[in-house]
Amino acid sequence: MSMYEQLKAKLSHVVPDAELRYKAEIADEINRLKVERNAVILGHNYMEPVLFYSVPDFVGDSLELSRKAAETDKDIIVFCGVRFMAETAKILSPDKTVLLPAKKAGCSLAESITAEDIKHLRKRFPGVPVVTYVNTYADVKAESDICCTSGNATAVVESLHSDTIIFLPDEYLARNTARETGKHIIFPTKDPKAVDAELDYQMIGWRGKCEVHERFTVEDIKRAREQFPDVVVLAHPECPPEVCEAADFSASTSAMVKYVKDSKAEHFLILTECAMGDNIAAENPDKEMLRICSIRCPHMNEITMEETRDALLKTQYVIEVPEDIRVRAYQAVKRMTEIGGAGKRD
Ligand code: 13P
Ligand code: SF4
C-alpha cells in the first residue's frame, strides 16, 4: 500500500484529502532520508496527525520517548517534539547526533525557571531533595536530584521517602502530585526575608505554568457534560487542580490514549493539545473526541513535515549540551527513567 493509501485508511475522517496527498509525498521523502542517514524518528503524542502516523519509529509521551532515546543504536535521533525533549535525548545518548526540526520549539514551563533559581531554593531549604519536571532545560536538570514526567511524578515523589520535597517548576503538576501523595504544599515568594522556611510544609512548589493547560476550566467540563451527559473527561495533570478534580481521569498523554482505547464509552472530552485529540480520533473511529482547538501549543506546532524533512537533509538543528552540565543532568534523568510510570505503548 502506498503512503497516501495508508494515510487515507487511517485519517480520511480527520484530515482533508488534498493535505493527505501533499504530505504523503513528503513522508516518503522523510522515510527514504531516514534510512540513508541511519536515523530514528521519535514523535511526541502532540504531533499533527499526518506526521504522527507516517514517519516516527516510535510515538509516545515524554517518559516513553526518553527511554527510546536511551536505547537506540542509530546514528541520528530526530526528535519531533519540543527542545527540552530533544535535550533529554542528548543527555541520555551523548554520542548520537540529536536533531530538533525547529530552531526554537520552546515551552512555557521550561522558560519559567533557571539553574540560579534552584541554587537559591537549595540555600533557603537546605537538605530538601529537588524533583524537577522533565519540561526544563539541561542546566536546570543538572541542579536537581531527580527528574519526573507526568507519567511518573507520584512514583518519583514516593520513591524518595522524604518528609519534605522541592517540586519544580509546574505549579499545577505540583499541586496535583501533592494531593495524590497527601502532602501539604507551599509556594515561597521571591522576598528573601519571607518566613516560608519557618512554615509547616511538606512540598515546596514554583509558579511555572503550561500556557496551554492553564487555560482549560471547570466551565469547559460543565458545558461538555450538559451537551453529552455520558461524556468521559480526560485532563492532563498540567491543568489546574480543580479541572483535574472535575475530570474523570488525569494522567500522561500516553495514559490518556490508552484510557480511550480501553474504554467502552462513546464520548470523550480531551483537555490537552488538540492534535492529540485528532490522533486518538483516528485510532478510534467509533468514538467521538470533543476537543478545544482554539487552545494550541505553539511550540509543538513548530514541528512540521517540511521541517522534519529539512532536519534530515541539512542536519539541523543540532542539539548540544555542554559536557559538565550533561553529566550532572544525566544523573537526574537516569534516576527518573529507572522509576516505573505509565506503561509502554509500542
Ligand atoms: P507527557 O509527558 O504527558 O507526554 O506531557 C508532555 C507535555 O509537554 C504535556 O504538555
Ligand atoms: Fe510546554 Fe505546555 Fe507546550 Fe507541553 S503543551 S510543550 S508543557 S507549553
Structural overview:
With 346 residues, this protein is of the alpha/beta class. The chain folds into 3 domains: 119 residues, 3-Layer(aba) Sandwich (Rossmann fold), CATH 3.40.50; 115 residues, NadA-like (Rossmann fold); 77 residues, Rossmann fold, CATH 3.40.50. 43% of the residues lie in helices and 14% in strands. Helix 5 crosses helix 15. Bound molecules: 1,3-dihydroxyacetonephosphate and iron/sulfur cluster.
Secondary structure elements and their pairing?
Blueprint: H1 3-11, H2 17-36, E1 39-44, H3 49-54, E2 58-60, H4 62-71, E3 76-80, H5 83-92, E4 97-99, H6 115-124, E5 130-133, H7 138-142, E6 146-148, H8 153-159, E7 165-168, H9 171-181, E8 185-186, E9 203-204, H10 218-227, E10 232-235, H11 241-246, E11 249-250, H12 253-262, E12 267-271, H13 274-283, E13 288-291, H14 305-314, H15 323-338
Short synopsis of the structure:
With 346 residues, the chain is of the alpha/beta class.
Q: What is the assigned CATH homologous superfamily of the largest domain?
A: NadA-like
Overall pLDDT metric:
95
Radius of gyration: 20 Å
Q: How many β strands by DSSP?
A: 13
| Largest sheet, strands/sense/barrel | 5 strands, parallel
Quaternary organization: single chain
The CATH architecture classification of the largest domain is 3-Layer(aba) Sandwich
CATH topology of the largest domain: Rossmann fold
Please give the alpha-carbon distance between the first and last residues: 22 Å
Distinct small molecules bound, one entry per kind? 1,3-dihydroxyacetonephosphate, iron/sulfur cluster
> How many structural domains does the protein architecture include?
3
- pLDDT < 50 stretches: 342-346
CATH class of the largest domain: Alpha Beta
How much helical structure, as a percent, in the residues? 40-55%
**Classification by helices and strands:** alpha/beta
Element-by-element helix/strand order: HHEHEHEHEHEHEHEHEEHEHEHEHEHH
